[in-house]
Design goal:
The structure is a homodimer. The two termini of chain A are 23 Å apart. In chain A, a hairpin with a 5-residue loop joins strand 1 and strand 2. Chain A is elongated. A two-stranded antiparallel sheet of chain A has the order 1-2. The mean pLDDT of chain A is 93. In chain A, helix 1 crosses helix 2, helix 1 crosses helix 3 and helix 1 crosses helix 4. Chain A is mainly alpha-helical. The first copy, chain A, is 47% helix and 6% strand. The relative contact order of chain A is 0.16. Chain A binds a DNA duplex through helix 3.
DNA sequence: GTAATTCCTACTAAACCGGTAAGTTATAGG
DNA sequence: CCTATAACTTACCGGTTTAGTAGGAATTAC
């Protein structure tokens, strides 16, 4: 029940880009250097963000990555959902991909759905701009 | 970010024992049969529950397992914490075991702490009796 | 053309997950 | 005391995921 480095690093990349949101492309070397994360590993993570439309990229000299939206228009939830695959605590909740044969008799399913909802609601209410501003308190976003 | 079979099966065992809470010891064979889970695998899961004091056990003929408390006195949270190890979404929150060197500069830490709190609050409010009764609706326990 | 940069594919060591197998110890009933 | 039952213990194992590493191809600015 852990968020992997993929999701955590993705958030750090997004925060870094929000902090250097000048309109210019930021090369991955810079981000990797500032965040002290392997550039090669970051490549695979940034690739997901790029393919999902969260980032624009430009190859070659003067190239790099930049945000496609304002920092306040990215929710932590959507970043994590793309990099982690899904935030569902159990696979049975990933409809319609997954259909558990026990669903009709499962006494825990509604409890899991409730947990999923609580997590998504919380993470939907936090933006990359909120993280970059670093003015959060643990209880701030329990809406 | 998934709850493993250990946690899910543990809940099913607890629900099963709540439904057969006659005061007698219930052999694991019965539970495994009803729940259609490998008895051998369940052994390792039930062992955790027993060592944590959630269950009493008796060996030999007439033996088995039974609850040590009333079903309403077990929260889903404590069952999952024992079987999953911890519900913390990132290791940095597992104090004092883990101390991340970036904690002082980490812009996401409070956000993760908030997620952890939201999850624990939700799961603390649901008991094994609630699950056994099967009267839950997804939104019921967002307190 | 050259340097910078993203993009793509393949590989790998270690950890974790979901079990299986075999045998040991304790208990109840006859 | 004997036997069946059932918990307990230890060891093992194949598959998947995680967290990277490596090497090169394609693209762009100057």
């Amino acid at each position: 029940m852990k968020i992997s480095t993929r999701g955590r690093y993705a958030l750090r990349v997004m925060i870094d880009l929000a902090e250097h949101n000048s309109g210019e492309y930021i090369p991955l070397t810079d981000i990797a250097g500032r965040q002290e994360i392997s550039e090669k590993y970051l490549e695979s993570i940034v690739s997901m963000l790029s393919k999902s439309g969260f980032l624009m990229s430009l190859r070659g000299k003067g190239g790099g990555y930049r945000l496609t939206r304002l920092p306040e228009d990215y929710s932590v939830r959507e970043i994590l959902e793309v990099t982690e695959g899904s935030l569902a605590p159990i696979a049975c909740l990933e409809q319609p991909t997954n259909t558990c044969p026990r669903a009709s008799v499962c006494k825990s399913l509604d409890m899991w759905q409730g947990l999923y909802d609580v997590m998504r609601d919380y993470l939907s209410g936090i933006s990359i701009a909120d993280l970059a501003a670093d003015t959060m308190e643990p209880g701030n976003f329990i809406i």
